[in-house]
Design brief:
The chain is mostly helical. Helices cover 67% and strands 0% of the residues. The chain is built from 13 helices and no strands. The chain starts with 28 loop residues before the first helix and ends with a helix.
Amino acid sequence: MLDFYVNRTLRKKENIAPGSNLPTYRTPLVVMHQIEKAIGSLAMDNPHYALELADLLWDEGYIETRLLAAFLLGRIPPQEERLLARLTAWTQQVLDKSVRAALLTTSFARMRKETPDEFLIVVGEWLHPARQRYWSNGIQALLPMITDPRFENMPPIFELVRPVIEAAPGILQTDLGNLINALYQDSPSETEYFLREILDTSPNPLTAVTLRRLLPTFPPELQASLRELVRQR
């Protein structure tokens, strides 16, 4: 079906998606949505077969097939014992940004909603202080939970991200900005108190340096609250 809807006028011998290392069918979004609609019910009714289909789609190696595989994982019940193994393995091996984003957001959809405690355990493994290479994954996976108006249990999230914000690695500056803005949007007063406490207690000088750089990206109220404190540090 993907091949049938290829725009032949756009196809090249080396048809790699822009900014990606994966080949692409250049499938129109409307077709992708129709395929997702058709296969979505499969995951609900037959998770075993849906997981097998996801494996096959992933192994095809096209950007579209991997996006569809990520979509299927997000429809499989979180009780499926092999689901977490796929998510862990695939997020570690993928390089394409759009596929990685789908794995960290769409693929965790049911787990975030139905088993949030288990989801936070997974993210906590990524955000462990000794696993900096996975911090970006952990932050990106958390964002849909933070921005979900139905989720109210913020203290565990503050606890998970504290070591990352204190370490403030420069390579994660954009991720940290997105994280802090999402936290503030959901819980303004708690986030303000949380950041001020970190600035007061963190022994790492990079904490204040990074927050000073990120300050212009924060809402005006948060900027005003933190400006003097980051200058002092």
